[in-house]
């Protein structure tokens, strides 16, 4: 496992979810399409990305990796805050 560069701030689950949603909107990818591309069940993505009454469900590392690949993003783009 790698560590963040010095001075980098790592985002919370809800911040990561917001960044994933922004990337989806930018690429015009629906939650259903992301589910199809990643193989992650729609309901799991919905709880992880859109949240709900209990907040956001944390993404498993494999799920997060599948999302970054499907959205053509580097993981750091969705995790680290801009300096």
What's the level 1 CATH class?
Mainly Alpha
Total of helices: 5
- Along the chain, the helix and strand elements come as HHHHH
Taking the sheet with the most strands, its summary is: none
**CATH topology name:** 434 Repressor (Amino-terminal Domain)
Question: How would you describe the oligomerization state of the chains in this entry?
Answer: single chain
Nearest-integer average pLDDT: 85
Q: How helix-rich are the residues, as a percent range?
A: 55-70%
CATH architecture: Orthogonal Bundle
Low-confidence stretches: none
* Total domain count: 1
Computed Rg: 12 Å
Record field, number of beta strands: 0
CATH superfamily grouping = lambda repressor-like DNA-binding domains
Question: What structural class do helix, strand and pairing data support?
Answer: mainly alpha
Strand % is under 5%
How far apart the termini lie comes to: 22 Å
Shape: globular
